[in-house]
Amino acid sequence: MRNTPGVRNGAVIQVEDVHKYYDLGETRVHALRGVSIRIEPGEFVAIMGASGSGKSTFMNIVGCLDKPTQGRYLLEGIEVSSLSKSDLAAIRNRKIGFVFQGFNLLSRTTALENVELPTLYARVSKQEGQKRSRQALELVGLGDRMLHFPSQLSGGQQQRVAIARALVNRPSILLADEPTGNLDSRTSVEIMGIFQKLNQDGLTIVLVTHEPDVAQFAKRSVHFRDGRIRRDEPVLNRPSAADVLKNMPTLED
Amino acid sequence: MDLLAIIRIAMRALARNKLRSSLTMLGIIIGVGAVIAMVSVGQGAQQQAQQQIAALGSNMLFVGAGTVNRGGMHMGWGATKSLVYDDMKAIQRECQAVQAAAPGSTTSTQVVFGNDNWATQITGTEPQYFDIRSWPMAEGSSFTQADVDSAANVAVIGETVRKNLFGATDPLGQTIRINNLPFRVTGVLTPKGTAAAMGNDQDDTVLVPITTLQKKITGQDWLRWIMVSAVSREGSYAAQQQITALLRDRHRIRPGQDDDFFVRNLADMAELADQQSRLFTILLASIASISLLVGGIGIMNIMLVSVTERTREIGVRMAIGATEGDVQQQFLTEAVVLSLLGGVIGIVLGLTASYLITQTLGWPVLVSATAILIAVIFSMGVGIFFGYYPARKAARLDPIEALRYE
Asked: What was the ipTM of the complex prediction?
């Protein structure tokens, strides 16, 4: 697809004056009131804000699950708002990796098969899909638990399976929606460590969280309030998750 | 995604809830099983009826002595004395559609051999009777035209009579006594079985020359019936008309007057029996297909529950790249796999049931390939038809809503 003229090339995500309304009968809910942001390759952005601030709507639009009512959204230079539903599905499949708060793994399905799922929809061959899935699971440190069911894994391990699933089709961005919301603080730091490592290797990450403790591991933080970006600043004194982990007391089980 | 992968995913989803899947399949299993069993039984009955009619003789017409109204008293069939030997000769001579005719008269009496005796039907006829009825000898030979001409004391016996009078003894050449007269047994007929159309055991009979019966046993010189074979099955209708016209003329029946005889066409009876058993099959099959319909509704019900239950899963699948088509295909495949698997099990069950039923009734086993094919196509159709709406519902889900669903 051709890049839209007048737009500087290179950005992974380019959002221009995006609005989103929901019509609920008589009332109109204004979820986004003109949001513009550029995210360059290799960035690690934390999206912060209280509930109702518009950050979830923003994430849905960035994740191609929803379309803006007004404004433009370009993913790797491609105007997404004009695409059909099945084209959007293909974009979600190949360019975006999702990590959810609730892990959202298929029950009674092994870790490996869960990770394989996006490769099935990408029409990748069985062998290639399995190879990639093994690699992805090894990358998140679960090489020895590929044939475990989600019920046999801890919360942190389940979230790692979900991260492996998000990475298996080698997306341009990883979108994580409160990925540590269901995890204890130590496991949260572990997951952030994985994110930092992936980011170091060049992966662009956008992370939604309301916890400043989690957001501090990102390189840039963006604050939403009332459907607008209120603050957009680099994270200063960014700690390494690996170092934090070393200084954390191990929990007694 | 290739078909194999889709089927694999569907199977895995169904395996996650084995009890529910098998209960859902049960509806289809019973439906398909019932259709197969009922169609097989119906076709077995049809075959049986056809065989029985064929056993009566091919292209056969039965001319019977008719009823008569004697001074206001209505007599039953066979009461008239007007059907005579010359009528038979005339039919043979003058009706073009007639191939052969044999006269007949019957009486019931006791037959004795040694210390055994047996009450049976004595039929007097001529040798061509056995050809007309396509009824060959199992042993020995029939009496001859010469035996008829000389009113000889010879007899041909049916299988039932042989069993009851002779047991293990070889009946050929033995002497049996009918009305205290000695008769030499010249032949034993092949068993024909019970005729459903007649309702009696055809093998429970002794046949003697018509002249012998008339002169030495009954003392009557008229006939009870004439057995006629037409030149072909189609020709039997022409034969029926020709015989009716001829006999009315010979018996001097004026137009408007009732016949004093009747002509029964076995082609008619065959057709009637055919029609009845076809109706029977359709009736059974339609009752059985209702259970197939109920099974289909069961599938739809479970698929709807499944879609609701797995809303989150659908949301996740959509988020990681499943298109509407992928989701629809997945749920449709699950429904079809359910119904098809149920169909296959139902076929096995239906075949077993029909085998048992036909064995019990002694009918021929008819494994109808058409019925199996229809069952497979039908159960697949049920899966597609009743799976479509739930699958559509799943595919139409909004991924954001689906992901938020608790």
From this structure: 0.90
Range of the domain at A140: 104-170
Interval B228-257 mean pLDDT? 87
Alpha carbon distance A216, A238 (integer Å): 6
Contacts of B320 in chain A (CB under 8 A): 92-93, 98, 117-118, 121, 165-166
Average pLDDT in chain B? 86
Identify the CATH number of the domain in which residue A119 sits.
1.20.1580.10
Q: Is B399 on the interface with A (CB under 8 A)?
A: yes
Predicted TM-score (pTM) of this structure: 0.69
Q: Can you tell me the distance from the alpha carbon of B71 to that of B105, in angstroms, rounded to the nearest whole number?
A: 26
For residue A70, tell me if it sits in a domain.
no
Q: Which value, to the nearest 10 degrees, does the dihedral of the CA atoms of residues B125, B130, B136, B137 take?
A: 10
Count of domains for chain A:
1
To the nearest whole angstrom, how far is the Cα of A69 from the nearest Cα of chain B? 16
Measured in angstroms, the CA of A92 and the nearest CA of chain B are apart by: 5
Domain boundaries, given as residue ranges, for chain B:
3-52+272-404, 81-259
The DSSP code for B215 is: I
User: Any chain B CB within 8 A of the CB of A92?
Assistant: yes
| Torsion angle of C-alpha atoms A177, A181, A183, A184, degrees rounded to 10 | 140
Q: Report if residue A148 sits inside a domain.
A: yes
The reply to whether A36 touches chain B by the CB within 8 Å rule is no
For residue A129, which amino acid is it? Answer: G
- Partner residue opposite A92 with nearest CB, options B9, B320, B325: B320
Task: Give domain status of residue A236, yes or no.
Answer: no
Q: Is residue A166 part of a domain?
A: yes
